[in-house]
Amino acid sequence: MKLSVITPIHNETECIPLFLDKIKPVLDDLKGIEGWQLFFVNDGSTDNSLDLLKHAHLKDNRINVISLSRNFGYQAALLAGLQTADSDVYAIIDVDCEDPPELLKVFLQKINEGNHLAYGIRSQRPEPKYIVWCRKIFYKLNMLIADSNVYMWMAEYSMFTRHLRNAILKPQTTFPFLRTEMAYAGYKSEGIQYQRQKRIAGKSHYKFYQMARFAIAGILAGTTFPLRFILSLSVAIFLVFSVLLFSIHDLSLLTFLTIDLGLFYLLITIPLISIYLARTYKNVVNRPGFFIDPQDTYI
């Protein structure tokens, strides 16, 4: 059984050597694995990351480098790695070691027990309380309004079979969100709870507004609730207007309230429809989610 590990990177010069020191002994020690390959996906790094990866590749040809032509984002980098790697089992792990590489042994055990997916449940992590609170809102809201199943407290740290990998790659969307596709596929899975660690080096590239954008994109990737909400809102406003029409006899007041209701309805519905229309337009145009730069790719 062959294993491919996908690791996206963007300006992670400080983390790369430390990550390799931690993960290589873990991969070498995995039982039942005939061979492993590590695929770093260089997502438009502007520091010395690519040079470090080229050096690592020359020392160990099991370490591969996929360079994207520019920064396409975390999810696109994961898809690039999954499309390129040919394996029996796949794993996703970040380079900052917040997710302990040692957990891969437990993931593999769960795969060998018949699961198609083993993933980390990272409900505990050292970060500010307001971030923890926001994460809880994201997961609870996502589960509440999602059109299909959602794995609570799951991120991308996981190991999965080729069957699930193929299922992940099937949707032709320009707004990929892998954990949504993993849950939608519905294959047998098991979550493993663990304590997330602090970054091994460097600083996180995710600012609060980027995390918020990521969360909103993730929710929209798995729900049509906002569109269905518009229908419910339309019925509610019609009922309110009907009550006002038969209970208010002052024409000027009725006109004022009707205009207010209409403006409220438009302020809610037009932005929601616009978001989904923009996403539909991009999916129809269907531009590739990423481009690989062959000059800086070493496989």
UniProtKB/TrEMBL annotation:
Record keywords: Membrane, Transferase, Transmembrane, Transmembrane helix
Membrane-traversing stretches: 229-248, 254-278
Protein name listed in UniProt: Glycosyltransferase
GO cellular component term of the entry, any: plasma membrane
Coiled-coil segments: none
Domain Glycosyltransferase 2-like residues, every copy: 4-153
Biological source species: Candidatus Scalindua japonica
Pfam families in UniProt: Glycos_transf_2
Single GO MF annotation: transferase activity
InterPro entries: Glyco_trans_2-like, Glycosyltransferase_2, Nucleotide-diphossugar_trans
